[in-house]
Design goal:
- The structure is a single chain.
- By secondary structure, the chain is mainly α.
- It is built from 20 helices and twelve strands.
- The protein has four domains: 143 residues, Rossmann fold, CATH 3.40.50.620; 151 residues, 3-Layer(aba) Sandwich (Rossmann fold), CATH 3.40.50.620; 51 residues; 98 residues, Arc Repressor Mutant, subunit A.
- The chain starts with 5 loop residues before the first strand and ends with a helix.
- The structure holds glutamic acid.
- Glutamic acid (GLU) binds next to loops.
């Protein structure tokens, strides 16, 4: 096996990219990216009836949102069918596989009779050691000659050594009677041909690994390092399902979670690095290892996700947030921000990003810079404005016309007005927020004044004074 780590994500294109798949992809991506390795993508589209191009597109989109870039071309498993069949025929040539002419009825009969006799119902083909001159002119499948005794050991990095008795495995079919390869063969051949060194996937595939090992052994190929990760459960400890909420990775984009927070959260679903909860991609790449994957199923917890998302929004670059928010709006099928709005948003970002856990929350606080005059006042703002000291806005206007537009000077003006009216600045804040934003929940009055600039602030004051 080469020294370069090669991992892969191998989704079946039968639906969107779900949370479990996204986490599998992320683990493989982190493992490769942290080791200067390669992360490959293979679409397992051999099941023609269930695979759709729309599902492939949705999976690619979900991965693009999560920033899980893959190396090289996307491999279509179906397109490799010829190569899969070639390997089966090679095994046939080498006597490691055989043609089996048993019909479905004969197999069913075998099982019935084994059951009646209290024996194992695993099919034992009479053709396993039959000489070719006894072969009829009839349809056949190609079966592997599985070892009859001994054990197969899966050295799993998460589950430990998993030992399967070979007498519990039958002579699996490699090629169907129409010559098409089975899925199990396809996976092994593709992983081998793609040079995959580490297979990290859900533990629902652990049983497959034993069968896949047989093919590696028969071909004399070195098996990959296996890591079968426990599935994700809902907060109630049951397998994650629709009743627990959204399952599609991209639904989280449309709900306004930042991709960086989602990556951080998904990495923590079943993997840990000491007590670290919040970390950057760089740290995750450096720290991620198979030893940190837990043996018991992780539970999906939206509160934790939101908490991490908030921390990621707070540290993200303003320009990157601007871009990601536009992408969120598109994903949520909402109107995009105009350039002027997006410019304003970026200028205001410093006072918005500290406390928002999601983009809708951030945009709500950004209302003051996104809305244009005349502002519509919501009920709370109307009430707040009604409670303003008499003539506040008209009196402040000339003072604000001449003051330098700096935080300290603005503070001085508003504080001295409060003093003159024998009140506290806190009492003025509500009506000022209302005049500046038309809302009650906003960034601080001074941040809004600085972001909006003198002309806009005075124009909003004059609108509000006329309304009051
Ligand atoms: N196509 C399989 C799935 O979507 C994954 C197979 C594998 O990782 O080996 O569950």
């Amino acid at each position: 096996m080469s020294d370069t780590v090669v991992t892969r994500f191998a989704p079946s294109p039968t639906g969107f990219l779900h949370i479990g798949g996204a986490r599998t992809a992320l683990f493989n991506w982190l493992y490769a990216r942290g080791r200067g390795g390669k992360f490959l993508l293979r679409i397992e589209d051999t099941d023609r009836a269930r695979s759709t191009p729309e599902a492939t597109a949705a999976i690619l989109q979900g991965m693009a949102w999560l920033g899980l870039d893959h190396d090289g071309e996307v491999v279509s498993q179906f397109e490799q069918a010829g190569r899969h069949a070639e390997v089966a025929l090679q095994l046939l040539d080498q006597g490691k596989a055989y043609k089996c002419f048993s019909t479905q009825e004969e197999i069913a009969e075998f099982r019935e009779s084994a059951k009646a006799k209290g024996r194992s119902t695993l099919f034992r083909s009479p053709w396993r050691d039959a000489s070719p001159d006894t072969h009829p002119e009839a349809p056949y499948v190609v079966r592997i000659k599985a070892p009859l005794d001994g054990t197969t050991v899966i050295r799993d990095e998460v589950q430990g050594d998993v030992t399967i008795r070979n007498d519990q495995l039958d002579d699996m079919v490699l090629l169907r009677s129409d010559g098409t390869p089975v899925y199990m063969l396809a996976v092994v051949v593709d992983d081998h041909d793609m040079g995959v060194t580490h297979v990290i996937r859900g533990d629902d595939h652990l049983n497959n690994a034993a069968r896949q090992m047989m093919i590696y052994q028969a071909m004399g190929w070195e098996p990959p390092v296996w890591a079968h990760i426990p599935l994700i459960h809902g907060p109630d400890g049951k397998k994650l399902s629709k009743r627990h909420g959204a399952l599609g990775a991209q639904e989280y984009q449309a709900m306004g979670y930042p991709a960086s927070g989602m990556r951080n959260y998904l990495a923590r679903l079943g993997w840990s690095h000491g007590d670290d909860e919040f970390f950057t991609d760089e740290q995750a790449k450096e720290w991620f290892d198979l030893g940190g994957i837990g043996k018991s199923p992780a539970r999906f917890d939206v509160k934790k996700l939101e908490n991490l998302c908030g921390q990621h929004i707070a540290i993200e670059e303003d320009a990157a947030l601007r871009q990601e928010i536009q992408e969120y709006l598109a994903a949520a099928e909402l109107s995009p921000l105009t350039d002027a709005q997006a410019d304003g948003l970026e200028r205001a970002m410093y006072c918005l990003k500290d406390r928002a856990k999601t983009f809708p929350e951030l945009l709500e606080k950004a209302h003051f810079v996104l809305a244009s005059r005349p502002l519509e006042m919501d009920d709370k703002a109307q009430k707040a404005l009604a409670g303003a000291p008499e003539g506040m806005l008209t009196e402040l206007t000339p003072q604000l016309q001449s003051v330098s537009w700096e935080r300290d000077d603005l503070e001085a003006v508003l504080n001295s007005f409060a003093e003159a009216r024998e009140t506290k600045f806190g009492k003025l804040a509500g009506p000022l927020r209302a005049a500046l934003a038309g809302r009650a929940v906003t960034p601080s009055v001074f941040d809004m004044m600085l972001v909006l600039g003198r002309d806009e602030v005075l124009a909003r004051f004059s609108d509000a004074a006329a309304d009051a």
